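Holo model, calcium ion. Inputs:
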Amino acid sequence: MGHPKNGTLFLASVVATLCSLSAISKPAEAATLHGGWRYAIDSFNDATARMWVGGPTDVGGNRFEIYGMAIKDDIAANKITVAINSNLSRNGATVPYASGYGHTGWGDLFFHTRSGLFGINFTQSNDSDARTTGVYKNVTAKSVSLANDGWASNSDYINFVRRNGGNPTMGDLSQSASRFGNSTKNVIDSGTKIGDIFAADLRGIDFGHFGARGSQTFGFSFTRSLLPTGDFVATLIQECFNDAIAFVGNLPQRPRPPVRPGLPRPGQPNPNTPSPGIPVTPEIPEATNPNTPRPGIPVTPEIPEATNPNNPITENPETPDIPEETIPDDTTPVTKVPEPTSLLAIGVFGTILLLKSQRKSSEKNLSGNA
Ligand SMILES: [Ca+2]
Ligand SMILES: [Ca+2]
Ligand SMILES: [Ca+2]
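Output:
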């Protein structure tokens, strides 16, 4: 890959021109449903690549070309699977730079949602600040493009590709409609890890149906309820900004269980009511501790207002938080509001006193009746 760092424009090679001529620009309607998968199809001739060390930049059909991205939304299994078709393998490649060789990989996959920015790191072979692969919330993004012999801005990339016969697009979006604007942000800078990724079942994937014929098809899965429901834009960009794709989608709400979490089901004993005769041991549930360290990016404790019964629920678009129902049980620690230990202790102490006095009075009644 590469680009004119010093302002000199490189002309695309004859090879690139031939590639452009043979490539189909935008072959199909994006985000099309086919065999249970939804597809966003990218331009087939908008990837740039430096041809040799210090050499000119080629446009279209090269090692960085992205052809498409598909998403399978399995509501019943609470699973989302993402598949990518490109000439760049999951672990990236060592390629010629302006001077010498360097490793250029994939950026992270971002989801712009109504609850803010989420990011998925799906390969260890990139320059993301996510320490381990997985799903992250409350994410900020940064660009590693220049460190990867890449583009300084989206418009620099667009202008170069157009001048050299390519048709730059971002899958479902026009290239200039990138959710990251004119920046080349492409990896996670900070965030809170909320889940892992796992191996994808790519059965039924059929990029060829759309003429997408990248040499590499790979994917990964993650738990669906980690993401909020509703509209999203998923964006995937290579570390060098040599090609980018976006997928515009919607996650419909799952049918909700009839009983709210935390309330006892009808007919079930309330777990918060101590049985008579069993001593009450004050305990602080682990879930109320917001300081539990997590691997990866340092955790910034946060207090979602909506979960504090003492605070009115307020809408704050500046600091969107995830509705509780979208977070599986194993991640609830980060959304719980810590109750002051003293208040909890007073409450427990009060309960003990109350129970003791009730027991005494009932004992009195029993002995009185006897
Ligand atoms: Ca492309
Ligand atoms: Ca790199
Ligand atoms: Ca593209």
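The longest helix spans residues 341-369. Residues 14-251 form one domain.
Archived with the compound record.
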